[in-house]
TrEMBL record:
The keyword Methyltransferase does not apply. This is Succinylglutamate desuccinylase/Aspartoacylase catalytic domain-containing protein. InterPro entries: AstE_AspA_cat, N-alpha-Ac-DABA-like, N-alpha-Ac-DABA_deacetylase. Residues 54-240 form the Succinylglutamate desuccinylase/Aspartoacylase catalytic domain. SUPFAM superfamilies: Zn-dependent exopeptidases. It comes from Falsiroseomonas stagni DSM 19981. The lineage of its organism: Bacteria, Pseudomonadati, Pseudomonadota, Alphaproteobacteria, Acetobacterales. Keywords: Hydrolase, Metal-binding, Zinc. One of its GO terms (molecular function) is hydrolase activity, acting on carbon-nitrogen (but not peptide) bonds, in linear amides. Its cofactor is Zn(2+).
Length: 336
């Protein structure tokens, strides 16, 4: 496609030419009409590095704005990746849902939308739906691989993991697992979702792209250890695809796990302050105490004890102290 053009009935305009070789930095300009700027746009930064021949990988972070390991790993890559290192094409979007990223929030300050519930989008549905439609209908068809970099956000902390779905297509499944093995996060989380819903991962899978999501930490902070895992994982994916020279650097092989059912979640039965019994990454037993829920409304009553209903790895924990009824405070994973 030519620069400065929109495609597929999308009002989004790319300042980069996806067919060009070399290194380009620009924006996806997404229309956002305001009272004081009827022709306003929100520019979403994008970097494309292409050279020679080879596959295309789309690397995205900032799908949720309060998840930082992926944003920083992709900013590093966007700064440093040189065309002469590349065989193929790398499309880097470090802060995809830009308004949420700029605000440091999971959801958009424009309209409260969760960007990962906006796919396949709507070209004229407002910022988030319009950008989702562009990514689905223009970018994904260019791609052989897609990696969406998430963390647990402000509310949760998660053992660094890539995340994929159990797929009906055995060939695509094998390629997805090989991609996850190459990323080499401590955990590869495989989830069976009958209807994976309106996520970027589900759209990529539907288009036959070898794709993964991830959960690379959380707590609304940038964890240096998880950032190191993310940086190495992204470089490993590019080596795995043959876009960069060399073999993936594998430390301990990734542990393949799943969260089979709701019994592996502990949910808050009411609002309160969560006091966890165990730290993230602990091995926990069914029936053991998960923690106490303290109710500020009832200073003379007992705290509410909650227990695990499954045995396994404490894969995800509530990070924020205050919880609302129905919030998960712990998620247990078991080995596949
Ligand atoms: Zn996320």
């Amino acid at each position: 496609m030519s620069a400065q053009s929109s495609l597929a009935g999308s009002p989004v305009v790319a300042e980069v030419d996806f067919a060009a070789k070399g290194r380009q930095a620009g924006h996806l300009r997404v229309p956002q009409s305001r009272d004081d700027s009827g022709w306003g746009t929100i520019p979403v930064p994008i970097v494309v590095v292409a050279n020679g021949s080879g596959p295309t990988m789309l690397l995205t972070a900032g799908n949720h704005g309060d998840e930082y390991e992926g944003q920083v790993a992709l900013l590093d890559l966007a700064r440093t990746l040189k065309p002469e290192q590349v065989q193929g094409r790398v499309i880097i979007i470090p802060a995809m849902h830009y308004p949420a990223c700029a605000a440091g929030k999971r959801l958009s300050p424009l309209d409260g939308r969760d960007f990962n519930r906006c796919f396949p989008g709507d070209p004229f549905g407002g910022f988030a739906l319009s950008l989702a439609h562009y990514i689905d209908s223009v970018l994904l068809p260019l791609c052989d691989y897609q990696q969406d970099l998430h963390s647990g956000g402000t509310g949760m902390d998660i053992v660094a993991s890539t995340a994929g779905h159990v797929l009906d297509d055995a060939g695509l499944q094998a390629k997805t697992l090989a991609m996850a093995d190459a990323f080499n996060a401590p955990v590869t989380m495989l989830l069976r979702e009958v209807n994976a819903g309106p996520t970027l991962l589900a759209q990529a899978e539907a288009r036959g792209v070898v794709a993964l999501s991830s959960e690379l930490g959380g707590g609304g902070r940038l964890n240096p250890a998880n950032l190191a895992i993310t940086r190495r994982g992204v470089a490993n994916l590019l080596r795995h695809a043959g876009i960069l020279d060399g073999k993936p650097e594998i430390t301990t092989p990734s542990r393949r796990m799943t969260v089979p059912d709701l019994a592996h979640y502990v949910f808050a039965p009411c609002d309160g302050i969560w006091e966890a019994a165990d730290i993230l990454g602990s091995s926990v037993e069914a029936g053991a105490p998960a923690g106490l829920l303290h109710r500020i409304e009832d200073p003379t009553g007992p705290a509410i004890p909650l227990s695990y209903a499954a045995t396994g790895l404490l894969w995800c924990v509530r990070h924020a102290g205050r919880v609302k009824v129905g919030d998960p405070v712990a998620v247990i994973a078991r080995d596949l």
